[in-house]
Amino acid sequence: MWLTQLLERNRQCWPDRTALVDEQRSVTWAEFHDRTAELARGLAELGIERGERVAVLSKDRIEVLESYFALARLGALFVPLNHSLAEPEVAGIVERVGAVAVLGEAELLDRHPRLPESVRVRLALDKPAFASLGTLAPARDLPVVADTDPIAVLHTSATTGQAKGVTVDSASFRAIALGWLVMARPTDDIVMVNCCPLYHGSMVVSLTYMAAGATVVLMPGFTPQRALTAVERHRATHMWMVPQMLRFMLQAKSSRRTDFTSLREVLYGAAPMPLDVYAAAVERLGCGFRQVYGMTEVGGPFVTLGPDEHPAPGDVTARIPCGRVVPGMSARAVDREGREVPRGEIGEIVVRGPGVMQGYWNDPGATREITLDGWTRTGDLGFVDDEGRISLVDRTKDVIIRAGQNVYPSEIERALMTHPAVHDAAVVGMPDEDYGEVPLAYVALEPDADASATELLGHVARLLAPYKRPRSVEFIEQVPRNPAGKIIKKLLRV
C-alpha cells in the first residue's frame, strides 16, 4: 500500500532526516514511521476496523499526518474536516460518511459537542491520551491493504453548493505522486513550507513531496508573518500556497527584511495568478515558480508548468498557462458531446487515468454526472495549445451568456485587477430582460484607495469589447474566497 511503502522507503533511506516540522516539534522519518505503526495498533485497540471512516478535525500539525498514515495502514478511511465549518456542517459530513470516530484538537472538538450516533470515539490530538495511544498495545497483525482499497474521503471546496465526498485509494495517491515527481525532478534536500490546509485535495502536494523524502513544514494556519518566519527559520527551498497568500506575504512589511536566498521554487495553484503579484514576486523572491492545476476528483495535481517554462512578467499578455499533464494521466478539451476540440479551441477540460477517484461517497448519481465516456469532467473551460500546454479560461458554471455570446468572468476580473485601486474583484451574471444575462462586478479596493464605479467601468471599456463589459460595479469590503483562494460565487449571485 502506497503510504506504507512511502514510509518504509524513507525510513530505510533517510532514517535521521527530519520528515515533518510544526510549531511544537519535529520528527525524523524513522520516528514518523514507528509512530504511525504504533498509532495504527492503538486505533485498532479502540475498535476501529478496516473500512470504517474516521473524521479528523484539526489545524495543520504533525498529529494530523500521523493519523492519516495510521488509519491508511489500518485500512480505515480518513475523512479530513474543514475546521472552520459550523456545527451543523461538521455533523452533516460525519453523518453522511457514517464516521465511527472523530480525532481532533481539543478546542475544536469542544465546539462540536453534539455529533451523530455513529461516533463512538472522540479523541483529542493534543492531549496525553493520544500521545500514549498504542504505546502499550500488544503486537498484532494489521490488515493487508490493497492499493485499490479506499483509504480517504476528501471533500470538495464547495464554491457552488454542498461539499461532495471524494473517495480515493492508494493507487490514486501513487499515480499522481510518481507522475508529478517525473515532471518536478526533485532533489533530496527539499524543505517545503506548506501554507495550505491538510483537509482537502491540496494535501496531495505535500504527500507527493514527502514521497521524494522532502521535509514538510506545517503551520496551524496561514499568516504572512508565519510563512516568512518559516522560510528563514527552516531555510526553506520550496513553498506551496495560493496566489492570495503570496500577495499578502509580499505586502507584509517584514517581507522586506526576510532572507529568501534559500528559496528555489514557489508552487502556486487553486486560483489564477494575478499578473501584478507574479511580477512583484519574481522581483522580490528571486526564485522559480511552478503552477499547480489540480482537482480533488482526479487525484489532486495533474498538470504543472515548471520554472523553466514560466514567462517573464513583461511577456504575459493575458494568462499564464497551467502547463502539461503529468505522465500517467491524460487530459483534453472537449465539446458538449464529448468530442475533442481542435488545438487552441475552447472546450471543457476532461481527465482520465489511475489518479481519478473511485466516485463520490454514496452518491452514484453525482458520480455519473461528472463522468463523460470514461473521462472525468473538471467543469473548467480551457484549451490545449500546439505544445500540449493547457490554459484555463473559466468555469463552465460561471460562463455568462449575453445575447448568445459567451462572456468569461475571469477575463473581466483580470481587466479590473489592472486598475491600481483594485485589490480584488469577482464577476457574476445577473438576469437581464433584453440580453438574458449581463456581467455584474464586485470590487474590493486597496486600503485608502479611491475609485468610482464610473472610473472602473471606463477602465474596463478601454480593455474589453462592449459585450464583455460589466453592467455595473458594486463595492464590497472583501471578495469571499475559500481557504484554497477560490471565489465563492454562490455568496455573490443576485
From TrEMBL:
SUPFAM superfamilies attached here?
Answer: Acetyl-CoA synthetase-like
Q: Which GO molecular function entries does the Swiss-Prot or TrEMBL record give? A: CoA-ligase activity
Q: Where is the AMP-binding enzyme C-terminal domain?
A: 411-486
Q: What is this protein called?
A: 2-succinylbenzoate--CoA ligase
Protein's UniProt keywords contain Ligase: yes
What organism does the UniProt record list as the source?
Streptomyces longwoodensis
Q: What is the lineage of its organism?
A: Bacteria, Bacillati, Actinomycetota, Actinomycetes, Kitasatosporales
Enumerate the spans annotated as AMP-dependent synthetase/ligase domain.
Answer: 8-361
| Superkingdom, natural source | Bacteria
Is Signal there in the keyword field? no
For this UniProt record, give its keywords in alphabetical order, as a comma-separated list: Ligase
Instruction: Spell out the InterPro entries in the cross-references.
Output: AMP-bd_C, AMP-bd_C_sf, AMP-dep_synth/lig_dom, ANL_N_sf
